[in-house]
Design brief:
Rossmann fold, alpha/beta
Length: about 260
């Protein structure tokens, strides 16, 4: 039996944790990554109790100096990686006019450059194997701009451009990309978001609190990965904004302004 190895970044909480726990029920090996080694070990214990074989590989997406070494560590566990789920990230709650450029750089390092460094280091191994898949955690905000999310939206937009190009270039190598665009999901993403000055936002947004259950979100993502979908949108009424942006951009803009999340 061909057992796949699935590598999940941002696996210590939220969607990453939910993905790990659901994949643990399948016949696969798991590599769990994030900054927080202790939390990763706790998740690994849960997955192991379910019956999965887990490996913990902690690192900080904000400061990847040698992505090739990290990839080699991941490959050393089982000799292969079949799916990399680029889930690690950080959100934002700050006006563009007030956001320090150091905060802008930090968000871009975590949400874009860290993901690209890891993926580009793994890509040659996928090409050599003649197969592989990247699942990339974007956001509905990767489809449109929104108040208090200027750099967050920019980082997610950038992921779409990069990974769509990568998918086009490597189609003949049987390498697939699934872009995942969640809307409001019940996680701690707003609690862990950064303010304009880089401090912790520390609040649960109302929309987040009423969002889709993280387990439901994870299940949809896994199904999308299995069917090799190029893109999946996950949300409730917030999905309307994607379609307004696409088909009625002037209506979208008026609606986005009227919501005024900065008040």
């Amino acid at each position: 039996m061909d057992i796949k190895t699935i590598w999940i970044t941002g696996a210590s909480s939220g969607i990453g944790e939910a993905l790990a726990l659901q994949y643990a029920n399948q016949s696969c090996y798991l590599i769990l990554s994030s900054r927080r080694k202790t939390e990763l070990e706790k998740i690994a214990e849960k997955c192991t109790a379910i019956g999965a074989k887990c490996y913990v590989l902690p690192f900080d997406l904000a400061s990847i100096n040698d992505a090739e070494s990290i990839v080699n560590e991941a490959l050393a566990f089982t000799g292969r990686v079949d799916i990399l789920i680029n889930n690690g990230g950080i959100s934002q709650r700050g006006l563009a006019a007030e956001t320090n450029v150091a905060v802008v750089r930090k968000i871009m390092e975590v949400n874009f450059f860290g993901q690209v460094a890891l993926s580009s280091a793994l890509l040659p191994h996928f090409i050599k194997a003649g197969a592989g898949q990247f699942a990339v955690m974007s956001s509905l905000t990767g489809k449109f701009g929104y108040g208090l999310r200027s750099t967050y939206a920019a980082s997610k937009h950038a992921l779409h451009g990069y990974f769509e190009s990568l998918a086009i270039e490597n189609f003949n190598h049987h390498i697939y990309v699934t872009m995942v665009c969640p809307g409001k999901i019940l996680t701690n993403i707003s609690l862990n978001a950064v303010n304009a000055d880089g401090t912790n936002y520390g609040k649960m947004d109302k929309g987040q609190k009423n969002g889709i259950a993280v387990e439901v979100c994870a299940n949809k993502i896994i199904k999308a990965i299995e069917s090799k979908k190029r893109e999946i949108l996950i949300g409730k009424v917030d999905l309307i904004m994607v379609y307004l942006k696409r088909f009625l951009p002037s209506v979208f803009f008026k609606k986005a302004v009227s919501l005024k999340p900065w008040l």
